[in-house]
Write a structure and sequence with these properties.
The complex is a heterodimer. By secondary structure, chain A is an alpha/beta fold. Chain A contains 13 helices and 15 strands. By secondary structure, chain B is α/β, with parallel strands linked by helices. In chain B, strand 13 and strand 14 form a beta hairpin. Classes of the chains: A alpha/beta, B alpha/beta. At the A-B interface, helix 3, helix 10, strand 13, strand 14 and strand 15 of A face helix 2, helix 9, strand 13 and strand 14 of B.
């Protein structure tokens, strides 16, 4: 303190003036202020009204009240929910026949991170990176397929010769942190080769594996328990409510299978992966009634599942709310949980100061809404979560109602307004 | 006994569904047939079978109660980009068209004669939405400024040959993005259109020596389409925001003015005064691509909502999204709910409240109505049904599972 005041004494008038000026400039320290929204940030145990200030691409401050005068742009979000940008742990943005470009399907849904689940393999990852990952505004992370050619169709995906654990692990090591894990899916052959090679690659590169197991009675994988035995703690089984993959519910007594509980206790994670066949009301209802909820909510969004209904993250969250999950719980399973599952927490999945400003704003509509499962069967619900605005890397990239922009007739002969 | 048998037979016949789909009690707006009121629309196979009142629900396999909605012909978006360069670089046509009620989308020059067949094989042939195309006068299509500014890439004969090879898909020739200050691109596109007996769609930037009035009064033919006409580089208004006389003159000549919203071509500061003076678009279209859908939300149904809130009537908006574009691309069989027409239908909700809309410059207009497509029928099939209007509740669906 003494040193400081000594410096002050010695300070020439011009410097004092300069400091005053920068003090004035500090009146607009922040580029963007999201004001008055109800922040749900499970990682920081926040579930209340909070203001969020953004500078550049980072969250600068989260506090109960930040004056609007301190920001270049203020968005009034009273009555709406604000969350960390959602993380869709199971998406298809490359390689798979039904893959979709990420931005127009993710950013409009409040999803700022998508994890491509196995579209690329070690042979095609570089092409994926050049054509999609580097060109998307959405953060795209990758579960690399154990099949070298990725999700190119059954001729490729059933070929065990192309499941090279060492080559896959080496691609992962060269491309951290974009590649966050391994995917095995659609294997139509018999035996355990696909899953075992994926787990082996996961062991070599220290990343988790996500399994989509296509079970045939002639596959030699008749015991669903066995699938869970070969998975390590932290590995994920997606499509958990597809009763043909895991037989989560015992068909005879309607109970969640004991091996499901055991696997969960052991640390195996269960992911929703809605998709075109893996979220069915009868299965999900029974499981949820017994408390068997997904660790992570994800869409498996592709060109046919998106036509069932906008089966995006807010839609999947709304469906879990139909089954009794609270909004807070669902947000946790759509932000911090997936971030942890792919070992990216706390870089993503939370809205703390210093983090990349990936944020989503939602309205929770009340009324009567139809929700369609993967088979197109509808069920009515009373709450519907809709994305209103998305911030990715500090920039407003989606703003359905134009909350962050001025009225056209007050903006003069405007050019593109930032 | 015979009487009894006959009665039983009649009853059985009566119970037999006649229609595959019956849309009941909707407010039908079908400008081609001058229908604007409550009607039932019945579909058999892929055709509109009947439009009438009081068609019995018992005669249909699937009944959609549309009492609170508008029922229109499937919408036609004549300026889209669903090009052939792979799912990672463009928008998925079915998702982005069908959920907006668009059953016919015209790709506006993404491909040229060199790569059209690739586009056809990879996208057009596998899409549910009816995809038509304007062929780019540039042989390689929208492949970047190097080819798009190269006059040697613009071969009217080759373009016309390709257009004539696929008359059921190629409805015209597109010219766009041409930077050199000459008329080469426009004139060659017109030449290709003359040779193939189709129309031209022009995306134009005025330059010294290449004036806009010359484009619409001299170089374009009646029936040709100027897209992006509410764009900020187009001198459609004078300094006092009055419509320029040459706009009216060109319209009188038969030049068509198309919205082509896009990421840069729809501005409230231009569209509002133009529409207030009665200068409406002949056709409403989106120029939908992966950036125009983000902040401007250049979807068909949203673009229509913007024009509605500026002051066009719903009937005018529907007319310019159905029958008008159908006529402009010389496909008068589309854009109608005539009996016998292909069953392409949109069911649209008009929400009331307060809604914000951004234009290409991110200027905001707050309106009191919002259009939303709730159900789309394409070729007789329900392809989008976000409210499940055509479906039964899951609990009545019986036990179902993936496990067989």
């Amino acid at each position: 303190m003494a040193v400081l005041s000594g410096m002050m004494d010695a300070m020439p008038a011009i410097l004092v003036l300069f400091l005053l000026a920068s003090g004035l400039a500090r009146a607009q320290t922040y580029d963007l202020l999201l004001k008055g929204g109800h922040l749900i940030d499970p990682a920081n145990r926040i579930d209340t009204v909070m203001d969020i200030a953004v500078s550049g691409d980072k969250i600068a401050l989260v506090a109960p009240s930040i004056p609007a005068a301190q920001a270049k742009k203020t968005v009034d979000l009273a009555g709406f929910y604000v969350t960390p940008g959602l993380i869709d742990l199971h998406a298809h943005v490359y390689g798979y026949g039904g893959s979709l470009f990420p931005d127009d399907t993710s950013l409009v849904a409040g999803t700022t991170t998508v994890v491509d689940a196995g579209g690329s393999g070690w042979r095609t990852f570089d092409d994926f990176k050049a054509r999609v990952i580097d060109k998307s505004r959405t953060r795209v992370l990758v579960l690399i397929n154990i099949v070298g050619w990725g999700m190119k169709g059954s001729k490729y995906e059933d070929n065990v010769e192309d499941m090279d654990s060492a080559a896959t692990a080496s691609k992962i090591k060269q491309n951290r942190p974009v590649i966050v894990g391994i995917k095995t899916a659609h294997f139509g052959g018999s035996g355990w080769t696909a899953i075992k090679r994926a787990v082996e690659a996961g062991r070599l590169s220290e990343v988790p594996v996500m399994v989509d197991d296509k079970i045939f009675t002639n596959s030699g994988r008749t015991s669903r328990e066995k699938v869970l035995d070969v998975l390590r703690p932290g590995d994920m089984h997606t499509h958990m409510y597809n009763d043909r993959q895991l037989e989560v519910i015992d068909r005879f007594n309607g109970k969640v299978q004991p091996y499901m509980w055991e696997a969960r206790k052991r640390g195996v994670l269960f992911d929703m992966g809605h998709g075109g066949g893996s979220f069915l009301w009868p299965v999900a209802s029974k499981a949820m009634r017994q408390g068997f909820a997904p660790d992570t909510i994800s869409t498996d969004l592709h060109s046919s599942s998106i036509m069932i209904q906008e089966s995006d993250m807010p839609n999947c969250i709304s469906k879990m709310m139909v089954l009794g999950m609270s909004l807070q719980d669902a947000i946790e399973r759509s932000t911090v949980n997936p971030a942890r599952a792919i070992h990216q927490f706390p870089e993503i999945g939370t809205a703390g100061a210093g983090k990349t400003a990936d944020l989503a704003v939602f309205e929770l509509r009340k009324g009567v809404f139809a929700f369609k499962d993967a088979w197109g069967k509808k069920r009515l619900g009373t709450q519907n979560l809709k994305c209103l605005l998305t911030v990715r890397g500090g920039k407003i990239v989606y703003d359905r109602e134009g909350l962050g922009f001025p009225l056209w007739n007050t903006a003069g002969e405007y050019e593109v307004i930032p | 006994m015979r009487l009894l048998l006959a009665l039983a037979l009649a009853a059985a016949l009566h119970a037999q569904p006649v229609y595959d789909l019956l849309i009941k009690n909707g407010h039908v707006i079908d400008p081609a047939n001058k229908r604007d009121g409550q009607f039932d629309v019945a579909v058999i196979g892929n055709k509109i079978a009947r439009v009438g009142t009081d068609l019995p629900a018992s005669q249909a396999r699937v009944v959609v109660e549309a009492g609170q909605y508008f029922v229109t012909p499937g919408l036609i978006d004549i300026h889209t980009h669903f090009d052939a360069q792979g799912a990672d670089l463009n928008l998925n046509p079915d998702h982005n068209a069908l959920r907006s009620g668009v059953t016919t989308a015209v790709d506006a020059g993404s491909s040229g004669w060199k790569n059209f067949e690739n586009f056809k094989r990879e996208v057009i042939d596998v899409s549910k939405v009816r995809l038509l195309a304007f062929l780019n006068i540039v042989g390689a299509g929208m492949y970047g400024p190097k080819v798009e500014n190269d006059v040697n890439e613009m071969d009217p004969e080759a373009a016309a040959r390709m257009a004539r090879k696929y008359p059921e898909i190629i409805v015209g020739i597109k010219t766009a993005h041409f930077q050199p200050a000459t008329w080469e691109a426009v004139d060659r596109a017109v030449k290709a259109a003359e040779l193939s007996k189709t129309v031209v769609m022009v995306d134009f930037a005025p330059k010294p020596g290449r004036d806009y009035p010359d484009l619409i009064l001299k170089h374009m033919r009646p029936g040709d389409i100027h897209t992006h006409f509410y764009g900020r580089l187009i001198p459609q208004l004078d300094a006092a925001k009055k419509i320029q006389p040459y706009m009216l003159e060109a319209r009188k000549r038969g030049v068509m003015f198309d919205v082509g919203h896009g990421a840069g071509s729809f501005w409230f500061r231009i569209a509002v005064p133009a529409i207030q003076q009665g200068f409406l678009p002949d056709t409403i279209s989106t120029d939908i691509h992966k950036s125009s859908v983000m902040l401007p939300r250049a979807y068909m149904i949203t673009t229509m909502s913007k024009l509605l809130n500026i002051g066009m009537s719903l009937e005018q908006v529907i007319e310019r999204s159905t029958v008008n574009p159908a006529r402009v691309i010389h496909r008068p069989e589309l854009g109608t709910l005539s009996e016998g027409a292909v069953a392409d239908i949109a069911i649209i909700e008009m929400q009331k409240g307060s809604f914000g809309f951004l234009d290409s410059g991110h200027g905001k207009l707050i309106g009191d109505r919002n259009l939303r497509c709730v159900l789309t029928v394409r070729n007789g099939q329900v392809v989008w049904d976000t409210e499940g209007l055509s479906l039964t509740d899951w609990i009545k669906a019986g036990p179902y599972s993936n496990f067989k």
